[in-house]
Amino acid sequence: MAHILVIGAGLAGSATALFCARRGHRVTVLEDGGPPPPGAGADDDWRDWERRQVPHARQGHAFLGLSTRVLRGELPELPAALAARGARVTPLETGSDDAAVLSRRLVYEGVIRRTMAAEPGITTVAGARVRALLTGGDAGGVTRVTGVRTRDGAEHTGDLVVDASGRRSQLTKWLAEAGLGTPRETAQPCGFFYLTRHYRLRPGCSFPSTTVPIVTELDYGTTLVFPADNGTFQLSATVAVDDPYKHRLREPETFTRFLQAVPATAEWCERGVPLDEPAPMGRLENRRRSLLDMDGRPVAAGLVMVGDAALQTNPTFGRGVSLAFAHARQLAHTAERAAAEPAAYTARFERWTADRLGVWFEIQCATDRARLSQLRAGLRGEHAPPADDLPNRFVRAMAVLRDDDERIRRASLRLYHMLMTPQDLMRDRAVSRHILAFLREHPMPEIRAEGPDRAAFEALVTGVPTASVRPFAGTPENGPGRRAPT
Q1: DSSP H or E stretch at residue 370
Q2: Cβ-contact 174, 145 below 8 angstroms
Q3: Which one, of 239, 240, 277, lies nearest residue 256 by Cα?
Q4: What is the Cα–Cα distance from 44 to 55, expressed in whole angstroms?
Q5: Is 132 left (phi over 0), alpha (psi -120 to 50) or beta?
Q6: What are the Cα distances from residue 235, in Å, to 43, 82, 161, 197, 273?
Q7: Domain boundaries, the chain
Q8: CA 402, 403, 406, 410 torsion: positive or negative?
Q9: Could you name the CATH architecture of 192-281?
Q10: CA of 286: how far to CAs of 189, 386, 397, 453, 473, in Å?
Q11: Where does 415-482 show beta strands of DSSP type E?
Q12: Which spans in 58-125 are helix H?
């Protein structure tokens, strides 16, 4: 068995540590921040646990079917532990026992962290901020990373060093300072400004829906609903970063006026009491790092990246946790090979990441490019047609057909919850043939999204009265919960 050194104890790092420990590996976790509050309830975790290492900790989260499937396989007791904390484990209508988990991020993460703290074979070093990599020896012509040095001068070593420090990873800097190669990076600014507000159900009220998430895409902005734990939920809104009215939405009254004008969120506003003020999140981007150089050789041996440190995606679709858990599972299933062949292991892990997880990064980039084009047109009061490439048309056709076709509805849910890839979908001949036949008759399907047009939106956020709240054509994404007028 190997000694695994994990940098970061977020969801990616904690999952890596737990999955590896359950297979008999010895794990040391270096965490810059502190643990969840001792003896705290779910609301205390959400309110009091400082997670500055996770900039989106208090934004809306959707824990998709893939993350639940991985948890059930690696930590079978976890879904029940989440439910005991007040999270809702919600079955998906996919024809199997798949489920999503409805929870605030910090409540969900608190369950994972406390499980890790109680797990034999895992040592957590709190307050350990990594400053430098330790290197030693040669592995087939590649310098081997043997550990790290923290800010207090302590040195920690392992057979395999795992960077799970998230989207703010400093690995590129550490590698440069160690005289090693530079990771290849692809970065795409999303161009979105994101706001989230938390609510609790009023006494006697229930969730209008437990679909995850509920999305309405208007020409100039998006609204999202994330049902969560203990009768709480989050409402989110996004607009383009160059929208001149974006900061008006940070005003609680303005945020509420806008959401009350969108039918899909209005019914949630009526049933909820706000728990905080709208919290912004900017600088959203899709970023991918690889430890392989242009010739396919690792820039360092005995080192891998997991979760957002390797693949960071726009959080709107909630894919990050599922990607991180799938990543952690692959590492845990293969880590015993790392000590004997550190360079080959790093290369294989990078190739697996590209082959199995890279498709979701590429989809996110393509989706966000198309969406930003629509938002910018919406700023001018124009309606930009949706992207005309086959994958986007295929997804829109599924959205039109799924209400009347059980097979397509199940396939749509499985795709959204990352339980199948687009390639898997195309191999389902019954579904793909039906959709392609529909596209021959309707080459550019669109769904109408109900909400205020741009002029009405500007009147809402500036407080100027208007009677112009009209439905218009939008292009809701492939989330199963979006709303269309009846």
Answers
A1: helix 358-379
A2: no
A3: 277
A4: 18
A5: beta
A6: 17, 22, 38, 5, 12
A7: 3-187+284-364, 192-281, 382-474
A8: positive
A9: 2-Layer Sandwich (3.30)
A10: 6, 20, 26, 29, 27
A11: 447-449, 472-474
A12: 65-74, 78-84, 105-117
In the DSSP assignment, the letter for residue 21 is H
Burial of 427 (0-12, 13-18, 19+ CB in 10 A): exposed
CATH for 3-187+284-364, options being 3.20.20.70, 3.40.50.1000, 3.50.50.60, 3.40.50.1820: 3.50.50.60
- The neighbouring-strand residues paired with 227 are 233
Q: Write out the chain's pLDDT in tens, 486 residues.
A: 899 999 999 999 999 999 999 999 999 999 998 899 988 899 999 999 998 878 788 888 989 999 999 999 999 999 999 999 999 999 998 889 999 999 999 999 999 999 999 999 999 999 999 999 999 988 889 999 999 999 999 999 999 999 999 999 999 999 999 999 889 999 999 999 999 999 999 999 999 999 887 899 999 999 999 999 999 999 999 999 999 999 999 999 999 999 999 999 999 999 999 999 999 987 889 999 999 999 899 999 999 999 999 999 998 889 999 999 999 999 999 999 999 999 999 999 999 999 999 999 999 999 999 899 999 999 988 888 777 888 788 888 998 898 889 999 999 999 999 999 988 998 999 999 999 999 999 988 887 789 999 999 999 999 876 544 444 334 434 343 333 322
Q: Which amino acid is at 81?
A: A
